[in-house]
Amino acid sequence: MSREVITTSMLIIASVVAVVALVNAVLPSVDGMSRSYTSVAQDMENEVKTDVDIIFITTQGDNVSMWVKNVGSNHIPLSYIEFSDIFITSSSNYWHPDYGSASNPGWNYTMENGKGDTWNNGETIKATIELDSLPTDTYELKFVLYNGVSESDIFSR
Questions:
Q1: Residue scoring higher pLDDT (36 or 52)
Q2: For 52-104, how does the pLDDT look when each residue is reduced to its tens digit (9 = 90+)?
Q3: How far is Cα 64 from Cα 28, in angstroms, rounded to an integer?
Q4: Sheet with 85-89: strands ordered across
Q5: Of 65, 57, 72, 86, the residue nearest 144 (C-alpha)
Q6: At CA 74, angle to CA 72 and CA 76, rounded to 5?
Q7: Residues 129, 60 contacting (CB under 8 angstroms)
Q8: Higher model confidence: residue 40 or residue 17?
Q9: Rounded to whole angstroms, how far apart are CA atoms 37 and 128?
Q10: Is 108 a residue whose pLDDT tops 80?
Q11: Which of 9, 18, 84, 150 has its Cβ near the most Cβ atoms within 10 Å?
């Protein structure tokens, strides 16, 4: 009889140790997965709330200016705008100017009708793109924000 009690006790202890080991192995994985899903959901929310509209493009010499309005509900920190990309393409030319570049091609922006350190809904920025030459042609200008949200428009020179 005592042999059966000892055997049963050892099996119960082994089962408890196995359950604790399993819980310690599974819970961190579940916690990591929930953090991943939360992060993906926050990124998706950021993209859904972000929207811009190119409202006007003009050329002056070899420079291109565009006015872009924030039409989304996301308040974009102005420090994030430098991580945006601008592409100008035609059937025979291609430019990808660098933000703040001292040499051409380069681009900078100014806030047209906003204040503070965020680009809020309804506010407009003016981006000025300096190129070495801009031949007469029809171009597509594409503005891509830091989070991949983009807008494009066609202009001619």
A1: 52
A2: 999 999 999 999 999 999 999 999 999 999 999 999 999 999 999 999 988 88
A3: 53
A4: 94-95, 85-89, 138-144, 150-156
A5: 86
A6: 115
A7: no
A8: 17
A9: 39
A10: yes
A11: 84
Measure Cα distances from 154 to 49, 61, 85, 87, 102 in Å. Answer: 25, 18, 16, 12, 26
- Structure token digits, residue 48: 């859904």
C-alpha of 153 from chain center:
20
Which residue type does 10 have? Answer: M
147, 51 contact by CB (below 8 A): no
For position 37, what pLDDT does the model report?
63
How far apart are alpha carbons 88 and 81 in whole angstroms? 17
Q: Is 140 helix (H, G, I), strand (E, B) or coil?
A: strand
Position 96 scores a pLDDT of 96
How is the beta sheet containing 52-60 ordered, strand by strand?
A: 52-60, 63-70, 124-130, 106-111, 98-99
Decide: helix, strand or coil at residue 64. strand
Residues in the chain: 157
pLDDT, tens digit (0-9, with 9 covering 90-100), for 119-157? 999 999 999 999 999 999 999 999 999 999 999 999 998
Cα-to-chain-centroid distance, residue 20? 41
Task: Encode burial over 43-63: b for 16+ CB neighbours within 10 A, e otherwise.
Answer: eeebeeebbbebeebebeeee
